[in-house]
What we know:
single chain; mainly alpha; globular; transmembrane; membrane; Cytochrome C and Quinol oxidase polypeptide I; transmembrane helix
Amino acid sequence: MKISIRNQVRIALLYFLIAASLGLLLRFWHVFDIDVNYKFIKHGHSHIALLGWVYVCLTTILYVLFVKQEKRVASKYNWGFIATQVTLVGMLLTFPIQGYAFLSITFSTLFLFASYWFTWFFFKNVKDEIKTSASFPYIKASLYYLVLSSIGPWALGGIMATLGPTSVWYRLAIYFYLHFQYNGWMLLALLGILLFVMERGGITLSRKRNKNLFLLINISVVLTALLSALWTAPENYVYSLSAFGAGIQVICLGYVLYWIRKNKKAVKRLFTALQYLLFIIVLIVLSIKLLLQLVGSFPYFANLSSNIIELTIAYLHWIFLGVVSIALFLILDVLKLIRFNQKMIYFYLAGFVLTEGLLIYKGIAIWSQAFTVTDFFNEYLLAASLLLFMAIALILFIPKKNAT
């Protein structure tokens, strides 16, 4: 059974819609008296969002751009794709019902093996000409971070068996996984793909500058992993190292923005008007993300963000719904794997801004105690989440134009 690239992208978007529907169910739980296990639904929501939508979409794009398009290779990839879907559907059916239990853990473990297989498959079958491109080191590093992040889930079993889920190490293992997923695997893969698009359009960095940028970014990815441990109130040097890593990322961003501005006309020629808008939005949300990360390396703000759950959720959603998902929309449209129109994008952005705004509003209200949170906050958040769900449904079911 061969699954076309177009249908693989649509499967990824379907996972995004399912993740959004589970998120919507979590919002319903706060407004209506519904008999569901909130924690179990949350597990299903997060796993399908990260491993369904983002992983499937990114690996499909990596296959299309960087892997040899030979019949033998395509057949292996297709079966690997199908095996991955079995693990994802298994998680979708088990996490919302039983949370972390035998079956859900089994399927999530099998998914880890599927991701290892894809990493091996990619390096074995990558196009020879890609290996010398400026973008390839970023793609290679992103897959290494994908594998590295899996240490977190592997550690959870031992931690739960010996120290229990209330242990500090339990939370640290989860944060380790999330950090190298978001800031390692996803961001470097996206950066590598966008660099490839620019490289194909004749916009390149010098070999020396690209090498230095790549080195600094990887140093910062490792050091900013310490940000995930600041809630434990560690020694001062941990704050200093995490701030140093966050600072390096801001400097790298500054250089990238300078490089883009220097090549502004050439960059604009690469994109349609809508694609260029998405590109600018990605740069804006990424810039805010990196600045917040730097601010969060200071003890006061590190403590603040860890104690106010709304701010933590807002930050994670800012990365996932903002930086990662909007960048994927851009790449999918550039590669003509799926085409968007402005109404779809504006609808999505409205839902994103409203949900983020409400979460940040409540977080600031709790922190400052200068104003109260409206009694209808949960209803407003539910309405904003419904808007986001509808936007994703429009993107999935009413595409402007699909690739063949």
